[in-house]
Each structure stands twice: as structure tokens, then as C-alpha cells.
Amino acid sequence: MNTLRNAVPGSAPRNLFSYRKYWASRFGTAPFLPMSRAEMDELGWDSCDIILVTGDAYIDHPSFGMALVGRLLEAQGFRVGIVSQPDWLSAKAFRTLGKPNLFFGVTAGNMDSMVNRYTADRKPRSDDAYTPGGEPNRRPDRAVVVYAQRCREAFPGSNVVIGSIEASLRRIAHYDYWSDKVRRSVLPDSKADLLIYGSAERAIVELAHRLAAGESIAGIHDLRGTAFMVPRGWLPGEDWAEIDSTEVDTPGLLIRHADPYAMTPEAGQEGGQEAACSAKPAPAASSEGPARGQVIRIHWQSHQRMPKLDRARTAIRLPSYEQVAADPVLYAHASRVFHLESNPGNARALVQAHGERDVWLNPPPIPLTTPEMDGVFASPFQRRPHPSYGEARIPAFEMIRFSINIMRGCFGGCTFCSITEHEGRIIQSRSEQSVLQEIEEIRDKTPGFTGIISDLGGPTANMYRLACKDAKIESACRRLSCVFPGICENLDTDHTPLVQLYRKARALPGVKKVLISSGLRYDLAVRDPQYVRELVTHHVGGYLKIAPEHTEEGPLAHMMKPGMSSYEQFKAMFEKFSREAGKEQYLIPYFIAAHPGTTDRDMLNLALWLKRNNFRLDQVQTFLPTPMAIATAMYHSRRNPLKKVDRDSEAVETVRGARQRRLHKAFLRYHDPENWPLLREALKQMGRADLIGNGRKQLIPFFQPPGTGLRGLAQPGAKVGTRSPGSSRGPATPAAAGGWRGKR
């Protein structure tokens, strides 16, 4: 019987470093993981056990996925080679290191290749931060599919495993913004043997050891955090059950039975008594178990009582690819079910039909412990690009050269962000000692270090060691966010461990300053004034970026972001502690244009707020629908998966047309003369022509400076006001600097 390993909530997974090292460990540690046969020869290798193919330049630094995974596999004793940014037009580059003994590990790199290559307006980007010299077009569209196919072409019969963020976010049928259609899971398109999603360490280490022991990859179906193709209707064993969730809810009987959207596990199951965050538990189930291999169908109209099901041996059948591709409402329903099965403590397996075969997703991986995180980051990284790049500048490396990742994961649940879908919502933190040792390594080994650490952070700056107060409640919880609509009463918001880390870091010899550059969750920060004081007094380099994203309740509710009261509270603290420290410092807010749930009037109100507060944003972010994000489901389906989805669900206001997207972006840059013609026309159509004029309370002037607004003039119906000399007023605070938002 095929039983999912470590599937029972609360069971301890195998320690990442408890495996017996593979025999090839006798070759020792490579200075850099080899990218050529010559380097392999110098190491005494006749072959590689594992070859990692990546769309990024190879930088031997823990912030880059191929280095982190490659060094971890090396620590297990395997010989790991790197094929970086290969020419994908033929299979030649994929034969550089020969055939791997165990498998090819294929990734698009640190970013989804489509996000990397195209803007939110679907225009090609002019540079690539992960390529030497910032050169564009060094990776193909949908790189995982292309690379996997070339690996097969280079060495037919070799095992191909896909992973990292592109594969992770495309593991089921997903809306693809760039083709404006629902695409299949990346698994059947790539023809990979296995997909590893999320943080890959547990799955890839166990997979490597089991393949080395002679197991066939075709039979490895029990690793958490993996997905694979199986025949239609396949179940891992006769004691498994399948819940049919291929239809949306329809009006039915007044008597409610088992709910596939239940926010807590079924009563009577492991962790079922610990209701998630004070929510009421689901209705009790019958003590009679299901027939062996029985397919259980849950519908609101069902009269029979649901049998008690073992969550570790239950799969939920999502609507098929063909269904979600044809029906946006079913797409939203599938998105809701998918996201409710994201907690490793209670998630069930998911299955989705693609034609005559199924994509099977095992539950998410068990998060790493602090000692395991320390071990992953303790590898002997060179902390610089591979020597083959010479003196070429790689922008992404320059950005993180002196920064340190202290944690992973995010429990914020912002609907436009893909961190939770990829890294999970349980925070995995490194120890103080591990972080301090890395700072010392930067000080002692990294050329150009001037004593300034550019960041101690991660997906969110201030979630280090924050967790649920009760592990049993955490394992039972099915909330999509720990901080929306308010901060959960079971969440520990004590920032003391982070404050202590900051103090010890800046006290190290040779360290002049430690900056915090990762995005700050200010609604958490205001719960701990000690943290805000410490941050503002010692760790802000003049500007601190935070992301309110919007000012209006409608968009904020669809983003799962806090209201502006939290921002105002944090702003007051920030200014107070800056004055006490004798420093002139500024908050730099980020906002999103054209997010689902946003109306033209919402954007107008945001623009008026910006003007009242003397903010002139430089670079702004237009909503980019990334695969599998909840906001992307809203964008595609015009339904809200944060609520129960049915045919009568309220439609979500969605900004889809190019002109309206430009208008929303123009509101954020109301001060730019290029946008004035478009804004004038929109304000007149909205009945707000009173906001056009030269007064202090008006948004844009009547006049149009010569040589500006040409793009606006090209819009149908656009008109230009009377020209007159003058220019817009300068800001009272510095213009908000644009930032790299690659974590979004």
C-alpha cells in the first residue's frame, strides 16, 4: 500500500540531515558546482548524479534557488552540476555535462519566466536582472516546459523533475495572463516525471536518496510537496477516499451537511477539536467509515451523513482542466478549494483531470525546523557569481550581495501575492547564531563590503519567529490569512526575538549599520512599539518602504490588506521615534493600480489622498495576474474565491481593458503631465470636472505644457486644456522611489 509519508498532522518528519551520505561524498566539496566538463575533470568526476537546469545565471549564494538546492544535495554526498541559461533552440547545451545518473532538476529560475520577460502591459522587458549585464532574452517563454523537453531530447529515458516558482505556481490548471486563457498544468506540457512545489528541500533530498537506492521514479508517489500524472481515477490504496468537488454550490435543502469549504477539519479527525481561530467546528461525522476505495461525493443536497474520513487518506477532486477552461465560475470554485487545502497540518491531496489522466497533488511539505534551516544555509557558498562570467555585472546579485535571508513563508495572505502558494504561510526561521555567522562571512569573504548589511529579512521583514500560540490550533486552522480581516487572537506578535537579533547584528565588529529593506507588515509592527522604536532608531536609511496598496475599503477587502487606520498609526509612531532619534526620515508607500475590486472612483480617491499627503510616486505597480493567485482568479472569473462561490455570486469589478488599466495607473501618477489629458477626460466622464484647475485642492491643471501628453492625446476623445505657463508644485516630502518587487 502506498501511504503518504509524514502525512499525519503532528508527526515528525525525517530530519533533513539524517540520511547516510551517498558514496560520492568522497570527492569532497566543489569550489563552485561545475558548469563544464573541464570543471568536472578537475574534481575527478566521470559523471554528475544530478544536473540542475536553470534560467538564471549561476550565483553561488543562498538567495538563489539553484545554489541553495545544489549545495544541499552536495552536502548529502551527490555530485551536482549546473546548466545555466542554456541555448534552448537545440538539445546541444543540455548535453554539456553528460547524462545525470539520477535526474535532471529543471527550473525557470528565481522568477516565473513570463513575469521575468514581460511587463504588466504584456510588453517585453528591456533587461533581465538575473543575467550577466542585465541582457534580455536569455531564457524562453515558459522556460520549465522548454527546458524539460530539451532534457528529454538530449537524453531520452532520463528522469526529469521540475520545480521552483514557475512549476510551483503552475501545478494545476491556471489562468495565464499572457495568453489570456486557462492553460493546463505544467506537468503534462513538460512531460516531467515529477513536480516538486514549494520549498523543495525535504522532497528533493528524499527523492535523490531513493533513486540512488534503486527505486523507480514512476513508483514514487508518497512524497509531500510533489505532483505527478496518473491514470484517471487512480488512488494510492484501497483505504483511500475521494471527495468530489467538481461542482459549485447550488441552492438546496435547509439541512446543511458536510461542507467542502469548511474552515476547520471535520470533527473527530486529528486536530479537529481545535477549532481554527475561534471558528465553530464542522458538523460531526458518522463513526461509520467508508467502503475501501469508495468515491465519496459531497453536495449540499446530499441526504446521507458523511462517513468519518481519514484526512491523510482522502483526496479532493477539483473540476477538470476542461471544466475550468470553459467555465470561469468553476475556475473560481477550484481556486477556493485549492487555497483552503494549503495548511500542511490538515491539507488533503488534490486531484484534477486533464483529459484521460489526472494530475495528483500530494499535501504541502512539512516546514523545516530551525536547525534544518540553519543546516541549509550553512553550506560553503562562495557568495559570488561563477568565475565564467568574469567581471560582468549581474543586477540581482548586486541587489542582494550584502543582504541576508533570515526566514521564509508569509501568513499575510495578500491575494495578489504568490508567496503563500509557494513558500506556505508557516514561518520558518533561522537561529540567531546562523544569521550572525553569515554576517561574519560577508564581512570576511565578500569583496567590496563597507560595513553595511543591506537587509535582514525575507518575504516580510517582521515575521521572524512569529507563529500561532498553539501548535494544535495551527495544524487545524484553515484561514487564508492570520492578519485579515484582523490579527488572529492566537497569533503571537511579540517582536522581541527580532529586536534581539537586530541588536546583536549591529554590535558585531566591522558592522557599521544594518538596514531593513524587505517589505514591512506595519499592522503587526504597531502591536509592538518596542520593535518600531528599534527599527526607526537604528535600521532605516532615510526611507522605509511599506505597502498600504490602497486607501479604499473595496480594493483592500479584495487584497486582504488592512485599512488605512493601521497605516496612520504606524506613521505616527514612525514620525515620533524619528524625532526622538533626531533623524529626518520618510515613509515610502507602495500602491497597486487596476487590482480586482477597484473602481475608477476608488483610484480617484486614492489620487486625492496622495495629493493631500504630498506624495508623488515615481514608479508604480499595475496589477499583474500571476498564476494561481487568488486575485488572478478574481481577474479571470469576476468572482471572489474569498467567499463561497456559486452561480449567483456577486461579480467582482475587474479592470481588464488596456485604456482603463492606463487610467488607473495615471491616477497614481496624477502629477505627470503625460497623464493629464487622459485624466481630464476621465474626470469629466465621472462628473468631477471640478477637480480640473489650478487650485490647491484640484487634482490636475487646465494647462498642458508643450510637448507633453502626446500619448494621452492619441486616446479616442482625449482633449487638452488651455496651455499656460507654470509647473506643478514640488512635493513636501521626497518623491517615492520605485522599488524592485520581484517577490510579488
Would you mind describing this structure in some detail?
- The strands form seven sheets. An eleven-stranded mixed beta sheet has the order 3-1-4-5-8-9-14-13-12-10-11, sandwiched between helices. Strands 22-23-24 form a three-stranded parallel beta sheet. A two-stranded antiparallel sheet has the order 2-15.
- The chain starts with 36 loop residues before the first helix and ends in a 31-residue tail after the last helix.
- The chain is globular, with a radius of gyration of 26 Å.
- Among the domains are: 23-228, Response regulator (Rossmann fold), CATH 3.40.50; 241-361, no CATH class.
- The chain is α/β, with parallel strands linked by helices.
What is the name of the CATH architecture of the domain at 23-228?
Answer: 3-Layer(aba) Sandwich
In whole angstroms, the N-to-C terminal distance is: 40 Å
Low-confidence stretches: 6-10, 250-261, 264-292, 298-304, 712-744
- What's the count of strands? 24
Helical element count? Answer: 24
Task: Indicate the multimeric state.
Answer: single chain
Largest sheet: 11 strands, mixed
Q: State the CATH topology of the domain at 23-228.
A: Rossmann fold
Strand order of the largest sheet: 3-1-4-5-8-9-14-13-12-10-11
- How would the global form be characterised? globular
* Backbone CA Rg: 26 Å
Question: Class of the domain at 23-228 in CATH?
Answer: Alpha Beta
Query: What percent of the residues sit in helical stretches (DSSP H or I)?
Result: 25-40%
